[in-house]
Amino acid sequence: MSTHLCVRSSYSLLNGTMSVSNLVNQAKMLGFSALALVEKDVMYSTIAFERQCKKQGIRPIYGLEIELSDFQGMSLILLAKDTAGYHELIQVSSLVSTHTLTLDLAQLSELISTCFILIPSVNGPFDGLDLNEVQQRAIEIRQILQQPYYLGLTYHETAFFKTRNQSLKKALGASGIESFFKLCLLSKEGG
Q1: In 10-111, which ranges are E strands?
Q2: What are phi and psi of 31, to 5 degrees?
Q3: CB atoms < 10 A from the CB of 130, how many?
Q4: Can you give the residue ranges of every domain in the chain?
Q5: Class of domain 20-183
Q6: What distance in Å separates the CA atoms of residue 52 and residue 74, rounded to the nearest whole number?
Q7: d(Cα 168, Cα 174) in Å, to the nearest integer?
């Protein structure tokens, strides 16, 4: 069973419709042992999420999505590896939500060291690039971050996405980047 890494709740205004309790109950019903809740810019849902996960015996994974000022406003998903990562997410969320500050990739890399960094491939820094440009961009991002990151491959059974995902894997593998994650819906079929 896989764990979904980009689930949103109603705490993400206009981005999620399910309550935290409904999300966790659905995950329990589907047999998930863990669930990542990722809200945009804020972490208001964490207390309710932790309580519901504890009640259902599901491991909570805390996440945050932020938009950066560079790479055409690239969005990143940050997932806490541990308690220190959770504290880093709180710090980043506070900076982003209380200031008119938009972080760039270099600033972000100085703030986080115990979070997984996930970069969605759709509407991300690799859109519209040919394979050589994808390789160059991947290396550039790795050099700025100075830590590993993971590229998200969107799960769709269409020929377009199958071809696109294979091309991205090939281009990034040639750059020495072989880390991928899969974004999909909260259902047994998607896992």
Answers
A1: 34-40, 59-67, 75-80
A2: 85, 20
A3: 10
A4: 20-183
A5: alpha beta
A6: 31
A7: 10
Any idea how long the chain is? 191
- DSSP3 helix / strand / coil % (the chain, rounded to 5): 40, 20, 40
**pLDDT at 173 (0 to 100):** 76
**47-77: burial string, b at 16+ Cβ within 10 Å, e else:** ebbbebbeebebebbbbbbbebebbeebbbb
Residue 24, token pair as written in the block: 């966790």
- Give the Cβ contact number of residue 14 at 10 Å: 8
> What's the pLDDT at 191?
36
**Average per-residue pLDDT for the chain:** 81
Q: Is the pLDDT of residue 146 over 90?
A: no
What is the distance between the alpha carbons of residues 166 and 149, in angstroms, rounded to a whole number?
Answer: 18
Radius of gyration, alpha carbons of the chain: 17
Question: What is the rounded average pLDDT of the residues 114-137?
Answer: 81
Give the C-alpha separation, 102 to 81, whole Å.
23
The model carries a pTM of: 0.84
